[in-house]
Amino acid sequence: MTTLVKTPKGLHGEVLVPGDKSISHRVIMLGALSEGETKINHFLFSDDCLSTVNAFRDLGVKIDIIDEHVIVHGVGFNGLEAPKHELQMGNSGTTTRLIMGILSGQNFSSELIGDDSLSKRPMNRVSEPLATMGAEVITTDGHLPAIVNGKQLHSTNYQMKVASAQVKSALIFAALQANEPSIIREKLPTRNHTETMLNAFGGKIVTSEDQLTITVNPQPRLKGIDLTVPGDISSAAFFIAAGLLVPNSQIRLQRVGINETRTGILDVVKRMGGNIQLENINRDGEPLADLVVTSSQLTATDISAEKIPAMIDELPIIALLCARAAGTSTISGAEELRVKETDRIAAITEEFKKLGIDITEKSDGFVINGSQDWHVESSQLNSHGDHRIGMTLAVADLLVDTHLELAGKESVSISYPDFFDDLARLI
Ligand SMILES: O=C(O)C1=C[C@@H](OP(=O)(O)O)[C@@H](O)[C@H](O)C1
Ligand SMILES: C=C(OP(=O)(O)O)C(=O)O
Question: Are residue 188 and residue 290 in the same domain, yes or no?
Fold first, then answer.
């Protein structure tokens, strides 16, 4: 891979990890639905989050970007305007599914379109539960393009069928516009940013002690806030792996979000014997810490369904940790990976085999026999247009002497436009 020095002698330095993608999407949405201004620091300027910014601009919301800061001039739930053309969702599943919940309760219709990858991803997981509230989301055989015909919504008491923060959040956004309180029951706890952020904006969302039942009180008057977005642990994950796997490394990852619905990777690394120290922990609002990562010898682990939501986007890079660890690791209950930007189970298996990794594809995950000694079978790697596969392969490149080519490396701009620059600075 042209930008990198082969097999570096160790990675050293600090990375200010870019803003959290999930939180960046939500702060634009909540800011738009609030009264007054929302001022955002450390917003993630990546393609996915810009899809959210552009969609809300198309809905009549003024959003200023001044230097590195974003100011959303909120219009309230009743202030969105009918878009003059289709809303372009780009590659972003989060934008699409959350906005469906918002648009379902408006008094106009909207059409949502997306790129080829997004147009293959399932949308009936959102349109069907929304229909229990009287919403009308008309998909194309369960996919985009979709038309959302805004309706007066009523409350729901809904048991979720998939463990998905996107589906949960769509239902919460719709429930805010309903006439009575709604109850949403999760299968497994998923990231809770919508709930915690809504409460910070003045909403009343109550989560049960086991995190599985969410009660949404409708018709809140939301007020804009000032927010500094924490670093994205899903982006930090690539440097966590690089720091652990490249011998003689020590890296400090600054101001990373450590919300416990997202830190599955930290638990896995600990179980595998990896050395990550948390420093400068700050628990005002979304918790943050610096992560200090030191090269470690890893041992194999098993990851099953109940652990998956807290590390769903980190599974490609966790699979790489397993590929380097001593022993046989299994990842199961991860069938959701098949409906991400690409089929991540198939893509990881195909690309890891090129690297000489002993990996077996399962319907819901992998079995991986780890080794420090891979015999590269093909140097022509492919991101499959998926940012997380691309960054995983870039970390793998640090571990082999063979010159590798990565097709589709530009896909990193979906969540981490400066990824290759930040990596190069550590070498
Ligand atoms: O709500 C969110 O911000 C996200 C939820 C997850 O998707 P699912 O809800 O489909 O699990 C995750 O994979 C995605 O990157 C971001
Ligand atoms: C799955 C992801 O995002 P989204 O669903 O928003 O496209 C991701 O970022 O890995």
Answer: no
